[in-house]
Design a protein that fits this description.
Number of strands: 15
Helix content: 25-40%
Largest sheet: 6 strands, antiparallel
Radius of gyration: 19 Å
Structural class: alpha+beta
Order of helices and strands: EHEEEHEHHHEHEEHEEEEHEHEEHH
CATH class of the largest domain: Alpha Beta
CATH architecture of the largest domain: 2-Layer Sandwich
CATH topology of the largest domain: D-amino Acid Aminotransferase, Chain A, domain 1
Strand content: 25-35%
Number of domains: 3
Length: 320
């Protein structure tokens, strides 16, 4: 008997289009002999659709055995949809609602990792109650320029900029608030090589199977911005050209992040490898699964097919 898998995609976030691609990849690669797939589309207003018809979450979820989420960003990765799935008692892939919220909140996740002894860039957290102009003056005095300005609760590098000097930093912060960011992180800019490492629970008999570190080489003069992620201009080397010692340490830190944040099933953590050490940046609880995404490339580098990975995730969700 086939397991009915509801695939969530879309959602009311700035990553709606990327989520559509992740969801389409999941739908295309779930083995047909094992699974009956239901494509559950969530539009930009947060309304649910089942087979093209407007529906309610309760009605859609009543017809599935398990949910596989292809959502990204707000609502999909910050614990909102996870709380809904928990309310209706539906098994689902990925981290639970609290761990999702914790990992998505860049300040909380960095603070937890720092307490666990992991190196992370210095930062300043701003919300709209702050005197932004005064805070910017303090940032310019305290941090070497340029700095990284990013929204605390968005993903896929949406809204991230690398800027230096009072006027550009102030403008970047104000623009994020004007665009709907609830709070902003201004972070020390670390020069080094960008890396990302995936962790998959229970794969190949290991409690926390660590995928090879991918080295990310953005276009000259850019960082791993939203455009660099999805334009095809970034070089992604899997496995990366890191020394054995560095690769092992990246893997260890990815496992530390996964465990410290209380994550479930799988995750992907981002780092900067600098001369002075390896810096933790953030963790993705629902990393992209498009053809351009990093996790599928890392899986392929160790001979794990995408259909096998998806099957493994469904089985993890059903076993809890």
């Amino acid at each position: 008997m086939q397991t009915v898998v509801g695939v969530l995609r879309g959602g009311p976030s700035r990553e709606h289009e990327v989520s559509l691609k992740s969801g389409a990849a999941i739908i295309a690669h779930l083995p047909e002999e094992q699974f009956l797939v239901r494509d559950i589309y969530i539009d930009k207003r947060g309304q649910w659709h089942d087979r093209g018809r407007l529906t309610t979450p309760e009605r859609a979820l009543r017809q599935v055995d398990v949910v596989m989420s292809g959502l990204h960003g707000e609502y999909g990765e910050d614990g909102e949809v996870q709380r809904l799935l928990e309310l209706f008692g539906v098994p689902y892939t990925g981290s639970d609602s609290f761990a999702s919220y914790l990992a998505m909140h860049k300040v909380m996740s960095k603070t937890h990792l720092r307490e666990a002894g992991v190196l992370t860039p210095e930062f300043r957290h701003l919300d709209q109650a702050n005197d932004v102009e005064s805070a910017t003056h303090e940032i310019i005095r305290s941090f070497n320029q340029p700095v990284v300005v990013k929204p605390v609760g968005w993903g896929s590098s949406v809204g991230v900029s690398v800027v230096g000097g009072y006027a550009p930093v102030l403008a970047a912060i104000q623009e994020l608030f004007a665009s709907g960011a609830e709070s902003v992180l201004v972070e020390e800019y670390i020069r080094g090589r960008e890396a990302t490492v995936g962790v998959v629970e229970g794969l190949r008999g290991e409690a926390f199977y660590t995928l090879p570190a991918i080295e990310i080489i953005p276009p000259e003069g850019d960082f791993f911005s939203y455009d660099a992620k999805y334009s095809g201009k970034t070089r992604e080397i899997a496995p990366g050209n890191f020394s054995r010692v560095t690769a092992e340490e990246l893997g260890r830190l990815a496992r530390v992040a996964h465990r410290t944040l209380g994550l479930r099933h799988y995750s992907r953590s981002d780092f900067i490898v600098a001369p002075q050490g390896i810096y933790y940046l953030e963790t993705n609880t629902l990393p992209g699964l498009t053809s351009e995404s990093l996790l599928p490339k890392s899986l392929a580098s160790v001979g794990v097919s995408f259909p096998d990975f998806l099957t493994h995730l469904v089985n993890l969700a059903l076993s809890r």
